[in-house]
Specification:
alpha+beta
């Protein structure tokens, strides 16, 4: 049986939909840890560093008052972030730490239009012994994983493209990733629809 161009096109549309639904489902959920501070970029060494970065607010899962959580005011460090070969916006993996509370591997540090759109945190290891409700909820919701967002505001204004020496302010947040069960549910539904269409039409 010959397959028409329309059917082939629909096949690829549905396949693309499965992939996009999977990606879209990978959202962020509470708890959120907000932070701010400063950054410096050395173009010669392709090195991105940070100073005076501190956790300054929390949104718990139930949005209750977080002011007694000891993680507030904790310093954040981002390890050694080096730019790839020719001053692109892709940086090497490093170690992210909220000092005294948890440490994690930081991957997918890719900046676009002055923003890190959700780098990934993996292998989150607790350091505080159970004192922070935020860390409780991050581990409970994230299962040892997390996501991190960051915006860059250069002192000279404009867009941060890391092609010359620069410095400025950052703001960001750490969140839990969407539970894997939700991602599988959405992706699974799209996949079943795709298979059903394929059996009927191709």
């Amino acid at each position: 049986m010959k397959t028409s161009h329309a059917k082939i096109s629909m096949f690829f549309v549905l396949l693309t939909s499965v992939i996009l639904l999977s990606t879209t489902a990978s959202a962020q959920v509470e708890p959120y840890l907000y932070f701010g501070g400063n950054y410096q970029y050395d173009a010669a060494d392709k090195l991105l560093t940070f100073t005076d970065n501190y956790a300054d607010w929390i949104d718990y899962i139930d949005y209750s008052d977080p002011s007694s959580d000891p993680i507030l005011g904790a310093a954040l460090s981002f390890g050694t972030l080096t730019n790839s070969g020719s001053n692109t916006l892709v940086f090497s993996s490093s170690t992210f730490t909220v000092e005294g509370y948890f440490t994690a591997t930081l991957d997918n540090f890719v900046v676009n239009n002055s923003e890190l759109m959700w780098g990934s945190l993996s292998n989150i290891q607790r350091l505080d012994g159970g004192s922070s409700q935020y860390v409780d909820e991050l581990l409970s919701n994230g299962g040892g994983r997390g996501n991190i967002y960051m915006s860059f505001t250069p002192v000279v204004g404009g867009t941060e493209n890391f092609t010359a020496n620069s410095s400025g302010a950052i703001g960001g947040m750490v969140a839990a990733p969407e539970p894997i069960s939700t991602i599988l549910f959405v992706t699974g539904g799209a996949t079943l629809a795709f298979r059903s269409y394929r059996k009927k039409r191709i």
